[in-house]
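ERR on first pass: missing label on line 2. Operator R.T. fixed the label and resubmitted. Corrected input:
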Amino acid sequence: MTRLFAAELLKLRTIRAMWGYALAVMLFAGLVAGGHIGSPPNDDRFAPNYQFDLVLSGAFPSVILALLLGMLLFTNEFRHGTISRTLLITPRRPILVALKLMVGAAAGLGLAVLAIATTAVVAVIGLAIVNVPLELGDAADALWRGLLAAALIGALGAAVGGVVQSQVGALVGTLVWLFVAEPLVWVLLGVVHLDGVADYLPAATVLSILDTNGENLSFAGTVGMAAVWLAVASALAVLRTSRRDIT
Amino acid sequence: MIEVESLSKTFGSTLAVDDLTFSVRPGTVTGFLGPNGAGKSTTMRAILGLVRPTSGTATVLGRRYSELDDPARRVGTLLETFDAHPGRSGRNHLRVLALAAGIPRSRVDEVLGLVDLREAGKRRVKGYSLGMRQRLGLAAALLGDPEVLVLDEPANGLDPQGMRWLREFLRSLAGEGRTILISSHVLAEVAQTVDEVVIIHRGKLIRQAAMGDVEAMAAGSTTVRSPGADRLAGLLAEAGIEALQSGGDRLTVGAPPERVGEIAAAQGIVLHELSVERASLEEIFLELTGEPGERGT
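pass 2 clean. output:
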């Protein structure tokens, strides 16, 4: 399993697109952090949770890109026909799915580290310019939340890729779920006075890990629920992958 | 050893492989032949665990492919569809495979040299020609120095020099006792390489035979032209050999040319032509697979 994992990471390192992801996440994290420091009135920069929010907002681009990269881990195999060779090396398909989830989590972690490191550099310089002292306790709390969210979402992306398998289908389906289906379900739940249930929906749950203002679910509950969605998506990915003929 | 036992596979309402049974012995190169769409690739993918059989079994080295320990080291494969990421270099493609299969990195350069891709290995695969892609596929198949090789149309895209190299290389591997199955839709292409053939059509087994037997099927009648055709026909009839006279001096004889020549020489009959009317391997193949073909000289 270790050598398979190392080979999957080598796959990522040996295509140029991966370096594009790394640059993109650093660019977006820098822009978000810069905007966060530069735009609010001076008093807001001393507000409780300001630096906590700053780190999490810097980590946010890495979470989005981790989802995308996680999906590509699987869908690229089908798009380029490399799935045959991958399955010849790892013929036990549930193991392949587990491997992709692990690589998705690792890739998410890597992107989050880059995003948070970029945010930290921008924050140290930017906060010094506006004379705001660093609150390392806040930042440390946000740091591991950001890492956890990116790892979970990277793995979830891989699982979604394993279920859908078509690259366009996975990307479009995820966008439709995020921006159309889940908001619609929120509305419908509100109509039948079940607003609280909306917190348990997949996107709400996963993104709540980065949300400091969650009202219903506790942080542990949010992480637990995200893990449940990950388990559901993984089980579906195993089922779909195991049944598919590679022709 | 590869064993296929009562293998069937349907895709929706299409029966791709129909109750197919054959085996491939160690130390032999076996040609897996059939026209396009005969079910060769589906069968090979079933052997490799990529396609789930509807019924029947396919085993390699006595086990299903997915149950083998270190399958990538024990079974080398080349599939008809190219399976390298276009954005990765050939060398990196092989490095990934070697790392995953636990094969030393030094082997990557060895196989790149073997298929004459050492220099091109640094380039991204999307710039490769068809022949280079095929050679990279062969390098991937040979990476683990496997005891079994399953190669789907390995000669596709190779130039004559490459085909000659492949033929000699596969013969040498078989000589080492390895089990080799290669598919083709052109019998003549593999005739010089294979010891046995498995011919399928519409998913069904038509024949599993030694290549020598197939070649014997291609040997046909003998054509003779002689000013003494009438006399020769009589002598052949006396010897119990069927001869059909046409065009005055021409005979079509159901015996090898050596026998016909001996009878004519014994009686001092002048011959102007003595030739074998032989069906080409492709004609035999078309005949076996039920496709329309015309026997010629």
